[in-house]
């Protein structure tokens, strides 16, 4: 699976690992990174051999969001405000020269591409596990909300700084965050723009677990392996049901759950699971 200079792709068996690769800028978003993400999500969905996806960052950081120095020079960048430490060198708003022309053409051809890349307008059918080291702020915290399982290193930090910069978190946070964590915690994060430690992020439910520095990717791959051992059709149906019923009433949600879940019982994988259990052997699932 191909990547770009700002997005590395690597296969670990059935797991696709995506690494945001702009460490000199704390992995602040760039056009090559967004195009790479867009294509990686689509390719992973189309490849039945991919059962899980891990999203992480290079150089001890996850993602600092939008490049503020580029924004100050007049760029738009989709409205993602980055950490004040992010560099503007080689950013999506300048310095790319000819190399970025093909990527800009992709953006021009699909005005929604950056939203799909940010998981705002697209939800992969495969589970996405975030492995966070270092800064995960502004747009980094926004793309985090599009992932399914989240692991953070002890020194990781989180936050939505937009209101402190006169901006708005248009990556989906005003909609998603209050649905993912308690109302008061969501509003505190959105309205104060303060920085949160990994422990605080775990306490409010933004991440699921905190591990020693340098081990977030290892833990994420362990979780991915556990997902990979389960039946892929069942895994994808469970994920689909969780998100498609989230905004429904309980009665409507339960009806929709049956529509999504009941067909799984007619698959060959649903026969293989109990048979393997009875025979005391690992199941062999074939997606049918």
From TrEMBL:
Residues 85-101 have a biased composition (Basic and acidic residues). It comes from the Bacteria. Residues 79-101 are annotated as: Disordered. Signal peptide: none annotated. Belongs to the enoyl-CoA hydratase/isomerase family. NCBIfam families: PRK07799.1. PANTHER family: ENOYL-COA HYDRATASE, IP11341P-RELATED. This is Crotonase/enoyl-CoA hydratase family protein. It comes from Streptacidiphilus cavernicola.
